Amino acid sequence: MKIVGISGSNVGSKTRTAIDYTLKMARKKYPDADITLLDLAEYEIVFSDGRNYWEYEGDTKYVTETIMAADAIIIGTPVFQASIPAILKNIFDLLPVNAFRDKVVSMLVTAGTPKHYLMVEQQLKPILAYMKAQIVQTYVFIEEKDFHRKEMTNDDVLFRIERLVEDTVVLTETFTSIREAKEAEYDF
Length: 188
What we know:
Layout: E1 2-7, H1 14-29, E2 34-39, H2 58-69, E3 72-78, H3 86-94, E4 104-111, H4 118-130, E5 134-135, E6 140-143, E7 147-148, E8 151-152, H5 155-184
Parallel strand pairs: 1-2, 1-3, 3-4, 4-5, 4-6
Antiparallel strand pairs: 7-8
């Protein structure tokens, strides 16, 4: 199983801290999984200009092809101006409309205030659904008060991240089994 964790911002540290912890938990619980981190702050990604994702070069090509090869994706995103960061939206724009078909996508969100929890419901989930993702319905919302010196300090958040990892893997295994059974019905 290929799992890709995306740290969906090119500034700040909280989302990266949260996604690092999440992928560490995934590696511990599922050592056979192929787990990759894509921290968008570490790549030079060009703006989408309408080409197919495989026609880009360099970091843009690597990031999009890594996402397309994944079975499961864990998206970490901060909330900026009550929305997702432009760099994350650009990733969605670089990918085809059915990029997440047969992929499970889960989310964790960092925000300075609890007032922004609906951003996931009103913006991120609709984008993922449009792109055909199998969405893990529960997500982890992490507030600024849950961090201290680049460490997550809220045990409830840590428990919810562990559950998110489990739900992501179980849903991926379930959908893979269903898809394989359906494909086995065809006699060619």
